[in-house]
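Worked Example 4.2. Consider the chain below.
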Amino acid sequence: MDVFTKVLKRNSVQLLDLPNVVGGGKGWKMTRGESTQDLSVVVLVSKKVPRQELTRSELVPQKLGTFSTDVIEVGDIRFLSRTEFLRPAPPGVSIGHYQISAGTFGAVVQDRRTKELLILSNNHVLANSTDGRDGRAKIGDPILQPGPHDGGKKEHLIGHLHRFIPLSREFGTSGCPQAASVEKFANRCLHAIRPNYRMMLQRQNPQGNLVDAAVARPLKPELITPEIMDIGPVKGIREAQVGMKLVKSGRSSGFNSAEVKVVSTMMRVALSSQESVLFEDQIVTGPMASPGDSGSLVLDQEGYAVGLLFAGSDSASVVNRIQNVTDLLEVDLVFG
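Applying the procedure from the previous section yields the following structure tokens:
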């Protein structure tokens, strides 16, 4: 044990008994905001109090052993909850459109044209699963952090819906005049025998979705931070490979991992009991998510982003390729 550690351990009880002191450690002494490069015992306090308001016995000693002391204010240190109000808000915490329950703030991205910082998550988290024509969401809608299910209200506004990729349903209303005529005639016949029933013709969408993605513009850039909770900064982008181990940090299940099982996947995803959505070019992993984790950024073990989590089950999780997400939204991930 070195001399500094011995001094700190010998004085730890004395320090923690002082008002507002929450810890101490090794660091450079600061003078008028500048580092002196002199090793000191840095005393961490929840709040700095003017010396004249403290009694002599409440003051941090100017020296401990042969080491000078310095005092840094760090606020009230506590375990961070992913479902509470946080500013700045990091990716990995609860967020949501004002009309949904809650999902996950996935990452901080930058608009390729304006260079402004934006919040990345799923369409079904930030844009209420809209197809762009159904009125479920519109540009400028309030985005809350935490999401409504976690107590998010108007006073928890973090930004507004800025851009989304429409979610096309597998079956949708047909715009074909011939189909409309058939539907009208069939409903006349049906009404004669079952007046409380109605038939509707729907058109199958031949093309699958590539992403479930949207971005929100924060009220101020200072309200968000790019470092993902429990993961840290994003280092870059990589393509998922079968067998690759991936990690994510989500609102519900926190930090966990899974292995890539399938890539270039086409699959049907249930949006509700009545609606399904087809997706193409997806990544399927082992189970790594719970409801509320949608929107989490998925990375490899070295911190390179590979996708955006949007769906799953007890047996598997489904992830959009990150390159599809950034290209369609015209944004770039902010790297650390």
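The chain has a mean pLDDT of 89. The first strand starts at residue 21 and ends at 31. Compare this with Example 4.1 before moving on.
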